[in-house]
Each structure stands twice: as C-alpha cells, then as structure tokens.
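Methods — Computational structure assignment.
A single polypeptide chain was analysed. Its primary sequence is given first, followed by the predicted tertiary structure written as structure tokens.
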Amino acid sequence: MKSNQFMRPEYFTNRELSWIAFNDRVLEEARDKNNPLLERARFLAITQSNLDEFFNIRVASLRKMVTVGYDKPDAAGMSPETQLKAIAAATHTMVDKQASTWSRSLQPKLAELNINLKHFEDLTAKQVQFVDDYFHQELYPVLTPMGVDPTRPFPFLANNSLNLALRLSRPEQEGDKRRSFAMVQIPAVYSRVLRLPDGDNQFMLLDDVVRQYVGELFVGATIQETAMFRVTRDMDMDVAEEDASDLMKEIQSQLKKRQRGKVMRLEIESNTDKHIRKRLIKALDVDEEDVYAIKGPIDLTFINQLVKQVSGHEELQFPSYTAYMDPEYSERSIFDMIRERDLFLHHPYDKFNPVIEFIRQAATDPAVLALKMTLYRVSSKSPIIQYLKQAAANGKQVTVLVELKARFDEENNVHWAQELERAGCHVIYGLVGLKTHSKLALVVRREEDGIRRYMHMATGNYNDVTAHFYTDMGLFTANPDMGIDASNIFNMLSGFSEPPYFHQLVIAPLGIRDFLFDRIDGEIRAAKAGRKALIQMKMNSLSDTAMIEKLYEASAAGVEIQLIVRGICNLKVGIPGVSENITVHSIVGRLLEHSRIYSFYADGEELVFLSSADLMNRNLSRRVELLFPILQDDIRERILSLYGLMWADNVKTRVLQADGTWEHLDLRGVEKLDVQAYLIKHAKELGDELNQVAAPEEEVQDTRRFIPMKAPEQSDQED
C-alpha cells in the first residue's frame, strides 16, 4: 500500500482534543485514591497550570487563525473555528471536574485530617485577630481600589492576575438603580495561602481576607455584590527573526508586548451577580463561551502553596528516595571513565550530578581546550552556567547556544545569555527560523595521543531542578565518529557550515524524519518477507501527520508497533487494515515521562536510538533536534530492558482504545507493576550492574534480568 492511502481525516484525532484527553489523565491521578492525598492535590494543581498554558498558546493560536480568515482543516478535518467550539465544550467539562475534585473530594479529606482552608466565619477569635492585624498591617498599604467611571477607565489586568470585582452604592446614588463598579487586584507579591495561628495546618486564602475587609477601601460606599475573577491572555510570541536585526532586543520587546495580549478566557465565580458578569464580558471583550463559571476557588495552582506549608503528614506524600550514583564518579576523572566505555544515565533514578561534574571538570582541567554546549532550559540558579563562566575565566574556548525562544523561559534565557557574554563566553542564538532543542555538550581535550572529543547527549534539558522529577536518558561517549559529527553540528550552528553528511548522529530538520522512515521501511520489508518485524517507540507526543501515515503503512504490512506516548497522540488504533497492529500506552504517574526512545528489531540487530525530538511536525521540521545511536551492547540491552519494564507497567498505564478513549488495564488476578516505583526501588541494583567495567562479551550478564517474573504487589508509596 502507498502511504497516501492513509491520509483520510477519520484516521486522525485532533491535536488539541488529544491534549485535553492527556490533561484528563493527569486529573485522574488527582482522583486516584491509591495516590497519597497531598500528591493528589498536586496533580490537581498541575491540571490547572497545564490548562492555563493551553489557553495562553494553543487557543490563542487558533483565535489568530480565525481572525485572519484561515480556515484550512487539520489532518482530522477540523477547521480552526470548529476546533475552538470543540475545545470550549471539552474544557468546560474539565473545569467542572476540577472544581468538584477539590470541593467534593480533596478538601473534605484534608479537613478530616484537620488540614483546613477556612472562611472568615469559621475562624477562632485568635485567628480573627490575626487576620485583622494582617490585613491592616500588611495588605492595606499595598491594595489599590480601582473605580471605573467616565474619568477612570477600565484598568489593564495582567495575565492570570486574580481580581475582586465589586458593585457598590454611594449616598449620592440614593434612589438611583445604577450601581458603581470597582475592582481590587489580589497582590501577587504575597503568598495566596495564609497560615493561621491557633492550631496546626490552618489556612485561609488571601482573596477571602481581601473580600472580608474590602469595604475599608471604599469608605462611604455600601458593597452590594462581590465576585472574584481572573483573565487568561494570549501569551504567544510572534518573533519575525528575518526582520530582527538583533534577536535579543526583539525578544525583549516581544516579552513586553506579550503581557498585553488579548483575553482568551474569563474565569468567574459561579454565583457572580449578572450585572458584574455583563460588565466584565463587555470590558474584556470576550464571548459567552469564553466565560468559565468556577464552583469554588479560582486558580487551583494555589494548592501547591498549600501543600508546601502543610507541616507533618509525611504519609500524605510520596516517600522520598535517594537517586543512584556510581561511586566511581567521585573517585576518578570523568574523562578517564568515558574514554574506557560509554556511560548511561537514567534520570531521576540516576543522579544528575555526573552531568554537572562533566562541565565542572571541563572548566578546571588544564588539558581541556574547548567546551561547547546547547542550552534550552536551565534552572534559575544553574550550576552549569557558573561552570561555563568559570571555564571562560580559565581560558577555555567556550561556545554556548542559548535558545532565546524557549517558551516561557525567554526572559530567563536572555538573562543567562547576557551573563555568559559578560564572562567571556561566545554566545550564539541558533539558526534563523528554527528553535534549537537538541541537548548536546562537547568537550575538546588534548591528550598524549592527540585531540579527543568527549560528549554528553540527552533526551532532556540541562536543568538540575527538573532532572529530579523528569524521566530522561543521557549518554557520555568519546566515540570518534560522533565527536566529528558533534563538531560539525556546532560549526553549523555558529557559522555557515553545511556538512555533506554525518557519520552517526542525525539532526532535524535535515534528517530525522527520513532516517526514521528508512528504519520503518526496513521493518516493512521484513514483515512482507515473513520475518519478525517490531517497532518500539517512546515519546511525549505523536502528532506529525506524515509519521503517523508511515506507521499506518507499517502496521498494514504486518509490523508489530508498540508506542508509549505520554501526551498528544493523533494516531488512532484498531482501524481495520490500517492500525490493527499498533498498540499505544500512556504512562502518567509520579514522575513526568520525558525520554524519547526509537527502537527497531532490524532482523535481530535491535537498533536503539535516543533523541531530543518528539514525533511532532515542529520537532521534525522547525527545530534543531538530535537523534543518536546506542552502540555499546550493555547500554542497548539496558534501554530495551527499561522499555520492556515500561511496557509491562499495569498500574499507571492507560491503553488507547479504538474509540479514542484511554482505559486502565484490568488488574484482576494479575501482579501489579508501577514501573516508576519499581525503578526507584531498584535504582542501586540496576546502576551497580550497568556501571561495572564490562567483562569480555561472553561473560557480560543479562541486563534484562531485573524484569520481574512476579512484579511487586505494591508501589513504593504503599511500602
């Protein structure tokens, strides 16, 4: 069959609706009674922040398409306008589900444990006095009453700011049915969750404090109605790089403009007075379908602040654990270790420290001549940045690509770029029109036998904070061919070099799509010849239309395809003659699955590749991405073993159904396996085995032996 036979709209799920289904899987974790209570609350907060960003970017993009009259349908046959209507219906349902999860489940269960979020009428006398003092001494000087009338226009409201709208009357309006309109912004400079005295774990929301005392800001007026509300704005950035003489200045300019984007969503309390509702809708220029009536507190991200302030109750959170690190990293030069063999890291089960140590040793080692690195997202206090600056101070040739367009990290990355430049590093911003999303570090070292290149390549960012809860894979290697490729990649990024070919590494947008197509074609040929054909892939999102069509072609030819897709999946399973050989799993659990694995049976050769790229059009066509092979046998076997464990997970896995829904596996009569809990528990065993110096080939142990014949009956949070 030819791939164009798989282009029918009914063969695809809409990208945005698939994302909403993913956020609903996260919401399921908040409703899962097997998760510790405070962790369930955290999951609920995550669904709120996810949804906020969805409106900031995805909904905003569709609105722009509608505004300019763009009506071309997506692969699923939905126009932008049709998508917006479907999104509104799905997200209204989700918002109601979020609110009920908090008000009917989580908050009552917390209250049973005497962890209370109180209203003013529930306070003890001591707590009333505390709140009274807090308002008058802390809040009152900061709050600003904002009346709205012909001389005082409706104020600008920042994205995601929380505000109290008021309808009030004044003596001069006696007998007049009209009411004055005013607002007070809840100050973001304070924690929204206020800890109360007179008992442990007693809290109150700052917005409730302001509402209780708001009359003192409008002396002489009578408060008739109040309503809390929040606006979500278009936060997408439109940077025309071809027209920008200075990309950094253009980014800084766009950051200022972004704050004034059009309102995408208005959240209001469900019992809001109709006059206030109409006033807000008109002033903010939103449609009725963009108004979300919330049955409970607006903006559930406050839950994160609440959880952090709860004292005691360790049993309500996931148990802490210690990530593994081979003691050899602390005893030897990391370059000596890499020269002997490739080294594999699986975060967060393995510590991120070796990655930081790689950069630290490069900064201080007299034999190191140059250090080159790509940075997409780093932490606000990144040790890697400090070591890069130290390397420059020590006379190394330091080249750093800082991606200024990393969404919502633009301001942070502009800061780091300026810091690195001041320290003497050569800072570049990538290629015009492309984001650089690859994760690559190259160290050039002069040794007795000549120049040697050392590399670190990974599926995740050089971020020491997210490395604690994102699952990612990384590889240290001194493979000469990969070293040449890495040098060519940096030459391409920093100059005008166009390498004619690469030895081992594959990059997008030049080649990852075609490279994967070739590997898929190999499996198709094997299946048609009656040989075993198997494709195993793990990624965050699968939405590239051409890639999905290619997987359909492989499935139709008889190739068995196993996909682990955490988030968006536009592919459909169970289509007769098209996708009957495709199974899709999604793992949503304690840790955020972020690694990308692409594996092909290849007539028993079992080719394994790791990558920074998801199978999305933006990754394959509009970003600089990296895909690298795993050539060392023990590491390749370990990754296949890990994939097998993930595929065997039956606790946190949902399986995509033919109707587009995701269902948990039936656990009746089977042993339970939570793969994340299992890998946390066995991190040291797995690490000790892999990191011992490889024995002769015939003596190498089977690294798959840790796949349990009988999986643990309990997850780590139940131990």
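Note: The CA atoms of residues 324 and 687 lie 7 Å apart.
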